[in-house]
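This is your field. Have a critical look at both lines of this record:
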Amino acid sequence: MSELSVKHLLGIKYLNESDIQLIFETADHFKEVINRSIKKVPSLRDITIANIFFENSTRTKLSFELAEKRLSADVLNFSASQSSVKKGETLIDTVNNILSMKVDMVVMRHPNPGAGIFLSKHVKASIVNAGDGAHEHPTQALLDSYSIREKLGDVAGKNVVIVGDILHSRVALSNIFALKLQGANVKVCGPKTLLPKYIESLGVGVETNLRKALDWCDVANMLRIQNERLDISYFPTTREYTQQFGVNKKLLDSLDKEIVIMHPGPINRGVEITSDVADSKQSIILNQVENGVAIRMAVIYLLASKIK
């Protein structure tokens, strides 16, 4: 298979396993490119991409922008927090104004779940979901799986635990879809108040004891506590959360095997993981950042090839 089965990247749940493998193989190629002295390829010289962020983002936005520029695309950056959206302009108006500038692809982050799906039905451009509310964040899940594949050789059959605020996390949901699709075993771990009621219906195990979860897993993906989405208190204090669900070097060293530590960032150092864990040789957090550019290059390149 040499092309994606989808025209947009709206969520992992719309992809099949061969889509994921194609994205990974394409990312392998681009990873070589970004490690060369000349890091650019002319692949998308005639494509214009608009990055529209209705929510603040530093890492994802920079990663997409870098990926687009490495592919030689023309890039428009649009931050909705400083725009007419504040004056009441609708999502469709905003995007249609941008599309009238002949944009081929829109990378969008939006606080409302399903915003990308809504948009894909109303505009001609190819849509990449860079995170919609607490729903999905597909490129993050792809780069996480890609990083596991790079470190452990394969995703299939691996035991992966996602620790933390599962309830508010689009990263968790996309990761569960991606890992299950590739044949990994998945558990979630966190305070009961931060685990969605429906979670087991997705085919994942639930473990509320962090030590047991770490004894079971090959990979621990540590999510941050999303203070900006916690409208009520889901646990007594941050200190208590850290004591029960934070990973420190002492805990890591007490396991009878070496597990891989991941984190989608930004890290709350000293909360979900301590600095000595984040910076340890078991951590692949910086690999995730590097792989993010290669994965986003692959996604953009493969979607651009479907633009007629």
Observations:
- The two ends are 19 Å apart (CA to CA).
- The mean pLDDT is 92.
- The CA atoms of residues 130 and 234 lie 26 Å apart.
